[in-house]
Write a structure and sequence with these properties.
By secondary structure, the chain is mainly alpha-helical. The protein is built from five helices and three strands, in the order αβαααββα. A three-stranded parallel beta sheet has the order 2-1-3, covered by helices on one side. Helix 3 runs antiparallel to helix 4 and helix 4 packs across helix 5. The chain starts with a helix and ends with a helix.
Length: 171
């Protein structure tokens, strides 16, 4: 009976070991692939144009506010503005300054949304290529080495970057 249990345990270890050897791991740096895709270059260019246009609007508003404030300050120092009018103008300038700060926050949010919209389809295509290479190559796991400190330990795997690039048409 002990011999049977021992043989079963040995067979179990052999089965587990052979299953572990059947696993195949790969790695790639998705950031390297993304920067080489023409679609990413186009998306980055469109995003920069969009961001620059929003910044120009903000700059025009800020310049206008500054010019109005300087003119007001000159009139105030000359004694041409009554105290009640000065208080109203200061309140107006404070409100417009807050609106500018809100606009800056809105620009950050708008640019982030636009980036997601532009980059999303590119990331989907990359994921499709990774999935296809993973299935075709019989990989158990594929690690992305573009993110710092995400892999604590992994046995040597295959670099799949060339296969993913080929799938996406990158030379």
């Amino acid at each position: 009976m002990k011999s049977l249990k021992f043989n079963l345990i040995i067979m179990l270890f052999i089965a587990i070991a052979s299953q572990a050897e059947a696993q195949k791991f790969g790695h790639l740096n998705s950031g390297n692939i993304l920067v080489q895709l023409p679609e990413t270059f186009v998306a980055d260019s469109l995003l920069k144009i969009y961001q620059d246009s929003l910044v120009v609007i903000g700059s025009v508003r800020a310049d206008s506010l500054e010019a109005e404030y300087m003119a007001f300050a000159k009139e105030y120092q000359a004694g041409n503005v009554p105290p009640i009018k000065a208080q109203q103008k200061q309140d107006e300038f404070r409100k417009r300054q807050e609106e500018l700060a809100q606009y800056e926050d809105a620009v950050i949010e708008l640019v982030a949304k636009k980036r997601e919209k532009l980059i999303g389809p590119i990331l989907q295509n990359l994921q499709v290529a990774i999935n296809e290479v993973g299935k075709e190559g019989g990989y158990t796991m594929i690690f992305d080495t573009s993110t710092f400190n995400t892999i604590l330990f992994a046995q040597e795997g295959d670099d799949l970057e060339p296969l993913i690039k080929a799938k996406l048409g990158i030379k």
